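Sequence and structure are kept together here, with a separate record for every protein. A complete record is shown below as an example:
=====
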Amino acid sequence: VTNIFQDQLDRYGEVETVRRMIQKGINSLAKGSCLLLNADDPLVAAMAAGEGINRLYWGFELDSPPPGYNNTTSGPNACPLCGSPLLYSKIYFSHLGHYRCSRCSFRRPDPDVKLVKRSPGKNGSSAIRLALGRNTIDLTFPLPGVYNLYNALAAAAAAYIAGIEPSIVKQSLEKASPSFGRMEQLEVGGKKLLFGLIKNPAGANEVLRTFLEKPGPLRLLLAINDNYADGTDVSWLWDVDFERLAVREKDIAFVILSGNRGEDMALRLKYAGLSPSLLLTEKNCDKALAAGLERTPEGTELLLLPTYTAMLELRKLLHQQGHTRPFEEE
């Protein structure tokens, strides 16, 4: 179990509902099963395992969160056992970090698989050190974003419990490639496109953090739909820290707003403090993509932040133009 975030609440319910459903599945595990849990998420770490179930935890053990790691979108901050406030000594991402209950004995468990070192590299990569029990491995992980580091750690934990050699874990993680639309990079006419799927406040903040680590000028296209697969309630946009864009306003070349809720996104950025002169609203994704590419000089990058169906629409357009494969072949 990797994490539990608010995500499309109109379909899935609140986080506690999701947690109860996952716990119900855990309760059905047969004896001898192994449960892999993210120690940094208190909702996950508190999940109970039945008799004969082995539990293994993974988590970050960095000396301190690197600059920009803290995510201003707060997640659940109550103890999952007694409901009292949680106290954090480190926060890496939303409500993921090092914590203890202010009242009862609940605290973050000591991870078996750990990220103990991370240094930023080129093109969003990271030089990292993993501790797999008593073994450590150093490698270059190519994917950007804190959530991808958590995914890498989860994969390493699964490999560790399966008895896979650390050298194979290292080779596999160094060959990691993004899923379609999730930090996926494409090239169109000498111009780079970088997709960062957004669908909830915590994930959107992490995409923003990753994109805002880049030097300016930044060229952005946000495509927001409210179709069923996106979640029909877009109020989550108001929980995203788009004010970060206003802080970097001098480094922003333009922001194009598209999708059937593009106007809502333009309103959100207005209240975030971004100058209206930087904004262009074009609800048609085809025209918005064309406008973004036209305004992006050769050799530079266009950053795309779409919701799920908008991402599929943009990739379909790029496939029709011969720039990528259809997503079902990815």
